[in-house]
Specification:
Helix content is 27%, strand content 15%. It is of the alpha+beta class. It has a five-stranded antiparallel beta sheet with strand order 1-2-9-6-7, covered by helices on one side. Strands 3-4-5-8 form a four-stranded antiparallel beta sheet. β1 and β2 form a beta hairpin. α1 packs parallel to α4, α4 runs antiparallel to α5 and α4 runs parallel beside α6.
Amino acid sequence: MIIDKQPLPGDELEIQDAPPSYDALEGVPPPPPRRDEKAGPSGSFPASTPPTSPGSPASISGLGKRGGKRGGNSWFAFGPSSKAAREVRTTVLGLLRDLVKQGDAKGALGVLESCADACKSYDLSLSSLLQEKSVEGHTPIYWAIVNRPALPPRPDDPDLVSAVLSHAAPLTDATVDELRLACLHTSDHALFQKLRRSPAFSPLSAKDELILGGNVPLDEVDVEDVKADEGAFIVKMKIPAFQKRMRISESVRVEFIAKGRMWELSFIVAGDHWDRRFGHRRVKQGTWAVKLALLPHSPPTWIDSRLVIEDPRVRGRPDLAQSSSSGPPTSLLEAVLSQGESSETKARPPIEVRLKAREQLTAQSWGAHADNMVLVLLEENALAHGLQFNDGSLIARLEAKLARPECIIC
């Protein structure tokens, strides 16, 4: 005799592709209690909530509700609870989608807190959901950056990106790559530099942690477009503790966004004859070099540029700046006076390093052999060899133009 299988409690629930309506959240079966049943149900959630607008914190407070005790054996709760967790997961993803689509920074904190409470009640990770590519092939964090207002928020204004990132930590490598891509797609250099100061975004090497005390170096990197030339830009940078980082870590790099591309300018010290950072170029151990390259997702381009390194004492001292750029003495009197100046009062002349591409630069994938780059050995420039400054910092600017280098011997 064939006996029809009796449906288990909860089988009548169906998971739909689209997230359930906000009003339906009140009917989501509660998860099994984690604490002793003698303690009774938690009283942190009200028995009912008045109707509110979708997406508001109050409208999703029911996500974290716990109902009263369920009758029957405890194993019967497995079916409904598992299905309820999947429904809550789908609903939270829908809420995150609406949040980054609308870009409501003021209500973001309330929505995220309610989602966090709901995820905690159903053993879900809000951090994982925020880093899941659930919105048109990208993470909610990506869209929060893409839909960010053109004008940066004031210090006292809520920021959707900051709110989302606070609930997304710790970030995975894939998510960091998504953040880079979002900043590149929006050409948001200011936000990119802000993110680079985060340890999660730019983790320090073991040596750098010891040098800098675990703090991400506050490298100052500013990008300026040249109005007279659409293909030209200037990058001004100040790198603290440059000498110490070069001598111990043997590498100092800055990243920036300019002309719809992500760039890396790095100073490196050769570790051996076949240092992969130098591509297939063979160099002597201990050789200092400067490298300019495109980072992933950047379109190819020609580049002609020069790196100008100033004496740190010149900043804020017009008199020193004038003396460093005045050139050789033009009279006997100037020669005699210049000999009387000490090294402490006389600034060094600027160091200029030409960085030009012999072929179009193309972006390399992460971890790949970097052959397509501009690489100049500093030992080829007498002034640049060593880059020794008293305060250990480096002040420089990169003057670049997206054009094929002119055929000039330099």
